[in-house]
Write a structure and sequence with these properties.
Elements (H helix, E strand, L loop, with lengths): L7 H19 L2 H12 L3 H29 L2 H18 L5 H16 L4 H10 L4 H51 L32 H4 L3 H30 L4 H29 L1 H19 L5 H30 L4 H30 L3 H19 L9
Helix pairs in contact: 1-6, 1-7, 2-7, 2-9, 3-5, 3-6, 3-13, 4-5, 4-7, 6-7, 6-13, 7-10, 7-12, 9-10, 9-12, 9-13, 9-14, 10-11, 10-12, 11-12, 11-14
Length: about 400
């Protein structure tokens, strides 16, 4: 028997808005590139480095937050990270020195972002089993919504009010959404007398939160390390595109507003990718959904090599955006599928950290390549090679024979 309203859907809604405002605000960084270069004269390598610090801090803290979420639940973790994230953006309005960029954006935004995926998606995995992929996809559609709306909004606000005031608006919005959403979160359905997927608790019912292997067992498996390296390749590619696609679009002749629209197109297409690939993972398994995402990504990256006209770049954004959304959706269900739920948060956090290492390195490599060669061609070719390697690794993944 199911309850009339399953509170898991409230959890989904809260996590949707957390994803929208956190990732949406973060990807506006590329929109600020030209303004920051014009005011301070900083190179793209230097600006990309701040983004890399975000991902290093976010990934490293994500491991700790994954373990804390397994034990304590999401409410306080989301509240504290939201306060730090919003404060980082507010302080960016006062930016005046190189070290401040790396502190306010690199460190504080990194700390604030450390919970947005690990805590929300691990919580969703505890609340849903039968539709885990779809619910994860709906939550991650919040990311796509943020990517669709916030770059365009930031671009318009910069024109109307300047980049400093725009950061004030972003910081205030982040604080509001995080404070409200954090109050709605709960660790698991068992806290509310429910079972996974909304069934009333009955004696002897399966508690999925107790099924699976622990971290010590997981790290001794081949599957764990294949996931880590494959996700490194994935996020190396994805974050390089996210950080550099707006300045690249400007370089080939698009206006500032049109270049921001390319980023928004990626966000819009990623909404479809998140929901479709989440539902696909429920039907055919997360590993196969991963492979589909790699095929789409490789297609987009090959197309990007010759995308010299605006319409070609927008077509790239549509195809790439679908893969981008899919990748971020299928990882958490894949970890649950391979290792179970006993240590889902910390295992997810470690694999995610490996991805953030790629996300930290990729934008800096691309920025340095551009500063030296005045072109992204070589950097984009490297992405093709890494995407191909990642697909080979995921093809080698096999489920564990049993869960503890």
């Amino acid at each position: 028997m199911k309850t009339r309203h399953y509170y898991g859907y409230t959890i989904v809604a809260a996590c949707f808005f957390i994803q929208a405002v956190s990732v949406g605000s973060m990807v506006t960084y590329g929109v600020f590139f030209k303004s920051l270069q014009a005011e301070f004269g900083w190179s793209r390598t230097f600006l990309s480095g701040a983004s890399s610090v975000v991902f290093l801090v976010m990934g490293a803290l994500g491991i700790l937050l994954g373990r804390l979420n397994d034990r304590l639940g999401p409410r306080q973790l989301i509240l504290v990270s939201g306060l730090v994230l919003g404060s980082g953006y507010l302080l960016m309005s006062l930016l005046g020195a190189p070290w401040q960029l790396y502190l306010f954006y690199g460190v504080m935004v990194g700390v604030g972002m450390s919970s947005h995926d690990i805590v929300t998606l691990s919580t969703i995995a505890r609340w849903f089993r039968q539709r885990r992929g779809l619910m994860t996809g709906i939550v991650k559609a919040g990311t796509g919504t943020g990517q669709l709306l916030l770059p365009l909004l930031a671009s318009s606000l910069i024109v109307l009010h300047g980049w400093r005031n725009t950061y004030l608006f972003i910081g205030a919005g982040v604080l509001l959404i995080y404070i409200v959403a954090s109050r709605l979160l709960r660790r698991s359905p068992q806290e509310m007398g429910l079972e996974v997927d909304g069934h009333a608790t009955v004696v002897g019912a399966l508690n999925e939160g107790g099924r699976g292997i622990l971290l010590g067992e997981a790290v001794r498996t081949r599957q764990f390390w294949l996931c880590c390296v494959a996700y490194f390749c994935v996020i190396f590619c994805l974050l390089t595109i996210i950080v550099h696609i707006v300045p690249h679009a400007s370089d080939i002749g698009l206006s500032a507003r049109s270049a921001a629209a390319v980023m928004s197109t990626i966000g819009g297409a990623s909404i479809a990718g998140r929901i479709v690939m989440g539902a696909t993972a429920d039907r055919i398994g997360s590993r196969r959904a991963f492979i589909i995402c790699f095929i789409v990504l490789l297609t987009a990256l090959v197309w990007l090599q010759g995308a010299s006209r605006p319409w070609m770049l927008f077509l790239f954004a549509l195809v790439y955006g679908f893969a981008h959304g899919g990748f971020y959706t299928v990882l958490s269900p894949t970890i649950a599928e391979l290792f179970g739920m006993s240590a889902h948060g910390v295992i997810f956090g470690i694999v995610y950290f490996c991805g953030t290492l790629g996300g930290a390195i990729g934008p800096v490599v691309a920025g340095r390549t551009f500063d030296v060669l005045q072109s992204y061609d070589s950097a984009f070719l490297l992405l093709i090679g890494l995407a191909a390697l990642g697909m080979v690794l995921v093809l080698a993944l096999r489920p564990l024979h049993s869960l503890a």
